[in-house]
């Protein structure tokens, strides 16, 4: 059989099917009227009762909007680019053009146009091809609604099947819709639903995509072109097929003229002109299109699904509003601060992660990367939440807090002469290349300081200066790392990211003395949250990027139990006793505000800032955590892909980035002073007596002293701001296994 013969056979088959369908529709749908008024009433009720829920919604759902704390748009999530608009936001000429070309008897029929169906049938038979459809706008609305809301391939196939049963059901549902909604409501729903090509669903998206205008501002020429796209949105769209678009637009204009809805002059003026387009961009979709905070957006997306239990289908089709905690101004300052230090896509990644003490609201997440794209500047992992590298001496705060809780006061002095200390409790690598003797063969853990330190320090001076030897000796006093590890967890640290992290129970079971030196892979968000707990006087809050999830009507989305998915902040008061948190906060002010501190670059005049620097083994990672009662933020710098030495210490790049992000953000804002330190914790905690003679590797006998205020910088170091970090130590990796 020739190609022409096969084509003719297919056309004849389709015409035959059309005759059968038309006959069935006429017979099936006229039957109720034949039975009398009583049967008509009963059938009307059954039609209304049979309406699927998809057809009872007043408008199709728009995109899920993700907004910042100030209400500005971050991005959307959608399957279809659609922005529903009410009837008064659609140009009347657009409504008239669509009705004229698609269903000129729209205002006369009840959802099924028998006259129009038979007219189309006769026209198609006479032409020997399908030239005109018989479906009303209401029938098309039914079909498109069922197609676009189909959850399975089977549902989609059923909504599009060329069968008599589908046509009958479609017609009955169309009649039911006409019973329930006004003509204007049906037309508005149709215009908000139908596909116009170029990814634009609904008239507002189409007006923006092709003409960069709102639907209410469409002109006659623009409306005619859009009305013509409904039947063939691919072949007749004007961006790629301008000639086809002009022909189809002119057909619409001719139809409007034939029906007396435009003048001969309007027809004559527009028809010769090519279609004029001013293409606009599609609405942002997903975190790759985020207007700001792409990595924060990805964190929100993960939180919505893993923590709140929403599905991607709900996000793409639900028309929700997700209210987030992002502060766009802080995000912008953080982006600029990181890029001012590390270029976009540099091998070293810099992460700034901020949240609010007392609420856990995540305020900003900045990285010198672009989220979700392809290329050297791109990253799909949210480095702000991933545990990648150690955070160095920032972990000394956990040991200090555990010691204070155990009754070892901040005034406790420990002597560690020779800038090295070998543990009496913890096993691990020995110090450097020193001569091995009987003592070293015990395999006890040993650490060294970087630079010259006083032989004797108390906890205040050791924390401000970041003394390795003091804190390993302090761990010896505790006898086990369980206190520091559990304190870290209480403050907000997690050790559950496999395979990068060791579980807390493993660290405790192996009694790893290196814990106090921050060798464990650390999430920047966890680090910021732990220090936020100190800023909130010991109240720990679970980090949250979302304050509300609202449905399309503006009501809170509820879970299976009927309660709102977001019910408030999740905080634990006194996770750390307030006297301990306040005392540590006051001590850590010295790390930023005094010449002896290692984080002086983070200082901002007019604001009391506490902080702690950290440098991991071999400088693979450097960190700074700074906080106030109102804000806490961590900065970490490392290469997430491979081993690379980071120049400087935690007080150089990280502290500088922290300052450069926070200084412009805090300009004009007032922040609070920390609550006073507890005098008993500063002065109490009498040391335990030595039980055996001291060797060079053991601490000297202790004496009770008053806390330092803090003391001058160690001898042999440059005390000028920004160079104090020469005293900050490196650390030793924990034993494997």
From TrEMBL:
Keywords: Carboxypeptidase, Cell shape, Cell wall biogenesis/degradation, Glycosyltransferase, Hydrolase, Membrane, Multifunctional enzyme, Peptidoglycan synthesis, Protease, Transferase, Transmembrane, Transmembrane helix
The Glycosyl transferase family domain, residue ranges: 71-256
GO molecular function: penicillin binding; peptidoglycan glycosyltransferase activity; serine-type D-Ala-D-Ala carboxypeptidase activity
InterPro entries for the chain: Beta-lactam/transpept-like, Glyco_trans_51, Glycosyltr_51/Transpeptidase, Lysozyme-like_dom_sf, PBP_transglycosylase, PCN-bd_Tpept
Domain Penicillin-binding protein transpeptidase span(s) in chain numbering: 350-647
Pfam families per UniProt: Transgly, Transpeptidase
Feature: compositional bias, Low complexity: 694-708
Transmembrane segments: 12-34
GO biological process: cell wall organization; peptidoglycan biosynthetic process; proteolysis; regulation of cell shape
Residue numbers spanned by region Disordered: 673-737
Gene Ontology CC annotation, any one: outer membrane-bounded periplasmic space
Family statement drawn from the similarity comment of this UniProt entry: In the N-terminal section; belongs to the glycosyltransferase 51 family. In the C-terminal section; belongs to the transpeptidase family.
Protein name: Membrane peptidoglycan carboxypeptidase
Organism, as annotated: Blastococcus xanthinilyticus
